[in-house]
Design a protein that fits this description.
This protein has 166 residues and is α/β, with parallel strands linked by helices. The chain has helices at residues 17-27, 37-40, 43-52, 64-71, 88-96, 126-137, 155-161; strands at residues 4-11, 31-35, 58-62, 80-85, 103-108, 116-119, 122-124, 141-144, 153-154. The protein is 37% helix and 26% strand. It is globular.
Length: 166
């Protein structure tokens, strides 16, 4: 047995109102794991994220290495978990380290210099595209939905449509 990952989401805001309430109810999770080396080493951000978790749901901030270690841990057997990542780069690292993810939901990747907006809440650059290609090639379904009731959009189709693949 390994942890029961109900949702893996990339959202650079990490835990915020929408994730906390809508997604946790829709997926029936018991725990949110924020996977970020950067946040794990920032006590204030860690504290703030724990405060943002909905009532009755525990949240932890862990490094990528820690996730890979606890992924097989009996402590998490059958525990219903949501994994939250800030970047596709972090997701690629844990998948390449043996964490088996079937689907990744892309929630929000804000616009910054050098990135191209592909939806009103997702912007990416060449590096991001390469990470998504790696995940798709590893058999991971990449779907875009801000909330569970939205229709699923296939990220790879969108990347092709935006002519972002070389």
């Amino acid at each position: 047995m390994v942890m029961d990952i109900r949702l893996t989401r990339i959202d650079d805001r990490l835990i915020h109102g929408q994730v906390a309430t809508v997604w946790s109810k829709a997926t029936g999770i018991e725990r949110i794991l924020v996977v970020s080396d950067e946040v794990a080493n920032d006590e204030l951000r860690k504290f703030l994220l724990k405060q943002a978790a909905p009532p009755g749901i525990k949240s932890n901030v862990v490094t990528k290495r820690k996730l890979v270690e606890v992924y097989q841990d009996q402590l998490f057997d059958g525990m219903k978990i949501m994994l939250l990542f800030a970047t596709p780069q972090d997701v690629v690292e844990v998948v390449e380290s043996g964490v088996d993810l079937k689907t990744v939901n892309i929630g929000g990747m804000r616009f910054s210099e050098g990135k191209k907006m592909i939806t009103n809440f997702i912007s990416m650059d060449e590096n991001d595209v390469q990470c998504f290609v790696k995940l798709a090639n590893a058999g991971v379904e990449l779907e875009i939905r801000q909330v569970p009731t939205d229709r699923k959009t296939d990220l790879m189709q969108l990347i092709k449509k935006e002519k972002m693949l070389q």
